[in-house]
Amino acid sequence: xxxxxxxxxxxxxxxxxxxxxxxxxxxxxxxxxxxxxxxxxxxxxxxxxxxxxxxxxxxxxxxxxxxxxxxxxxxxxxxxxxxxxxxxxxxxxxxxxxxxxxxxxxxxxxxxxxxxxxxxxxxxxxxxxxxxxxxxxxxxxxxxxxxxxxxxxxxxxxxxxxxxxxxxxxxxxxxxxxxxxxxxxxxxxxxxxxxxxxxxxxxxxxxxxxxxxxxxxxxxxxxxxxxxxxxxxxxxxxxxxxxxxxxxxxxxxxxxxxxxxxxxxxxxxxxxxxxxxxxxxxxxxxxxxxxxxxxxxxxxxxxxxxxxxxxxxxxxxxxxxxxxxxxxxxxxxxxxxxxxxx
Amino acid sequence: xxxxxxxxxxxxxxxxxxxxxxxxxxxxxxxxxxxxxxxxxxxxxxxxxxxxxxxxxxxxxxxxxxxxxxxxxxxxxxxxxxxxxxxxxxxxxxxxxxxxxxxxxxxxxxxxxxxxxxxxxxxxxxxxxxxxxxxxxxxxxxxxxxxxxxxxxxxxxxxxxxxxxxxxxxxxxxxxxxxxxxxxxxxxxxxxxxxxxxxxxxxxxxxxxxxxxxxxxxxxxxxxxxxxxxxxxxxxxxxxxxxxxxxxxxxxxxxxxxxxxxxxxxxxxxxxxxxxxxxxxxxxxxxxxxxxx
Lengths: 342, 293
Hints:
The structure holds 2 protein chains of 2 kinds.
Chain A: H1 15-20, H2 35-38, H3 52-83, E1 86-89, E2 93-96, H4 100-106, H5 109-141, H6 147-159, H7 162-172, H8 179-186, H9 203-227, H10 232-240, H11 245-273, H12 277-282, H13 294-303, H14 308-341
Antiparallel strand pairs in A: 1-2
Chain B: H1 13-50, H2 54-57, H3 72-78, H4 83-114, H5 120-131, H6 139-148, H7 155-180, H8 184-191, H9 196-207, H10 209-225, H11 228-233, H12 242-247, H13 257-277, H14 279-286
Helix pairs in contact in B: 1-13, 3-13, 4-7, 4-10, 5-7, 7-10, 8-9, 10-14
């Protein structure tokens, strides 16, 4: 079954093989990637594979890309970690101080508020996006006339630059001429005009809505890919047995797409946790810090406050949180599917 | 199952079934319409806004259609704001970064997918893991490096950073496609006396072209939309990209919604065209070949 094969591209997942094999829950195939390429069934039978030639060539071909990736991710993260233990400025140079930045961070209400807000934002938006994404995918999975156009339409929000999305939602939810205010008052859902982005009670939710609009397509596509791995026969036999559509979805479709769904949700949570563009452009973190996320807080500390050391500590906290979230998901996935297997 | 009033049990089963099918079809149509409307309405509103006069934009009742329309905002975008500069910058940075990235990704993926490289599973996992790093935790060290190299506020500095950033995504998209080609291809090429690079160039790359196109488009969109690094690394309109330009849109006296909308349309239209034309490829690319083609 070829769901979300980023993580586990073993040969059984190739679309061709998958077609002939009913995916079974006993083989959830969530084993991490490493065994894939060295799987004996798949070993590339190049004649030279025992000689050093192709191996060396492989390393040579791999090196530039690996160097580029390491240079823009691993090295900077490690240096950020180091900077967070320093008292540093852009022009003043830096000297090692140890943990003062850490104790300042742990005692900083601004940080903790931003941390909780970002966590809530990430999980809240992901929850809605997952639900909406499943709905969209179920619709787009049917065959109907103009499906290609519908799929293209759904992709549009995903392709639009986030900064542009920010401007769009800033205009739609403007407190004076925003079309959202007009529609809501016309439908008598609100009494007067709401300053959506200027009110601490509504600003974060409005940004969340913009994020949901922008990223639901991504979710829908991943769910769609997972849906295509559900064998048609399963649904049909459930129908013959008299199962309602909802019952079929819950008992047949959902279990098959669940692993893909969890991985897609993980990708979304990690991405939403970094949210920067939307609050930076729409509110700048305000009003009254109500939309300050870890990324905007860190960015301002770094580039406006010019506090390299403390800003790096905030960035490190963001990084560690992401690692913990990913580890949590991985732990849950492996436990759940090992239990199924055994 | 549908709410059929009690006094019509006499209705023949066929009619009831047909009615049910009709209801279901209408519900489905409604669902499709809702999905499409939700996705395109904000962009269409932006499009309409960009052609409306400022006084219509600030009126209490919104005008849905730009009648009478105006091109004033588009003129302002290209003359007052000199927006073509940002566009040129974005094109230069994005195209170079995507092209170089694609080349590196193709070489690396060939090695990972089809050559006996030791520890390739670890390499793949590391590359994927690195792509999850939050940008806030890499921005300062990159800034310091570019600063010491004298590459701040240059095309080279920004597109160099983008090369590494889009690589993981490209590698994962390409990996699925490279892996799906039968291994007999390499063997046949080897028997014909082709070296590894020759095999890559003449056999694998042409066959993996759909995957390369998908990786290229995804990389392009990622780089085109990137904001935080561009904001940090560029400081003059001579090198700033489109997202930085749009984020900096300001007018002294009022919020220039019409101008912003026009600028948004200008930078988004190419992406919308890509999406509409290559919907199938992009879907396959995002889902990394998991979709049957």
